[in-house]
Amino acid sequence: MIEMHIEEPAKRIPVYDEADICVLGGSCTGVFAAVRAARLGARVVLVEKQNAFGGVATSGLVNIWHSLYDTTFTKQIIAGLTWETIERLARVDAVRAEEKSHSAGYALNTEELKIELDRLVLESGVKPYLHTAFAAPYVQDGELKGVIVENKSGRGAILARQFVDATGDGDLCARLELAHRVSPQFQPSTACAKISGWGEGGGMPEDDPREGGLKGLNLNEARLKHREAYDLPEGFGWGRYVPGTKGIYMYAGTRVYHADSADGEQLTHAEIEGRRQVRAVMDLIRDHGPDNRIALVALPSYIGTRETRHVEARHRLKGSEVLLGTAFDDAIASGSYRVDIHHQDKPGLTFKYLDGTEVYVRPGYPHAVGRWRPDTGDSPTYYQIPYRSLLPQGPYPNLIMAGRMIDVDDEAFGGVRVMVNMNQTGEAAGVAAYLALHQDRPLDTVDPSELRRTLREGGSIML
Length: 463
What we know:
FAD/NAD(P)-binding domain; FAD-dependent oxidoreductase; oxidoreductase activity; oxidoreductase; metal-binding
């Protein structure tokens, strides 16, 4: 490809809004950041490129939130807006709890989740902008003053005093040219689908190898046996029935390898390839499991991206700190989900547990069970994420990040990346931005003990 450039003439653009805090990215992480800051009294603008809030949960169709308890299921370690949202969904029969499951805590009806997130945003007084894409930062005299966005009204600016990058890919940080990296083994993306007529239409036990109980077909075995005929890569499939429906199943069984969703061309390829694989899986079921009268109900509006950029922060959370349950004085989130690594360089995935066990799962083959450390007889039951891992290095003291772009290594990312953990980073970022605003100080000088206290007062559990 010939590299070329054109000159874009300078022009005056309108200011769409001015706020105390601007949150870029309307996943649950971004919504929770905005809501927590607004509830404390800040004027907050929330910018989202899709037509609804919720990110991977809604636009990506992933309808699982993991356990809010420690690994023994005896101590609740997560509450805050995650728990509040679950309670809201329960009122409209849009959530199903899965007791004492290491694979899931709650199955969600993510269409209902869209509506609840709308309500959370509006009730808290946040100013929302949907169908609005971030284009560029606005920096004046070395200070981050605003962001340039584009929507149906054209191009405009949103000015603010504090900024939360909750874009998932760290778009604001990257366009500010802050140091960041993409792991050579970044976890591959998955296009999910909602499919009707899947099996008996009931619940699904943890790690059910029948993929939700298809009639007369073990999908894992069939995919391995017929994968060349349907051009399906080896991978790992799972799913859950959608609460409140009969026989509509969310299936997450595609794999798009070596496609970086932070790159425009590669993201385009990933979207098309993910949909192709959904059709291939359905063709396989139709051909080899004809008793299942399946129909495609919904495809995601955005592929389920697991990992792209990680922005360098004041602290890089290490896999050893997660697996050994290291305690941090500035901890702002706790989690118990196992380290779950979807491999780029081989099929299947590896689970590492806090009790020292390790399992390599390759569908169609026996599990390879071992240990990543000797049995000590004493194991942590949860891990923590420090505030420092949300603070990007660089010259912008009014910028914080939340979500999967935080600074973690490959192993730590396998555990902390799930939504119930990232939701907490959003709440912490929103509260920290409020404190920095209220006290007129840089984000990296916010007192962690005050941050933790304010989070606790707002409903979060701080251990």
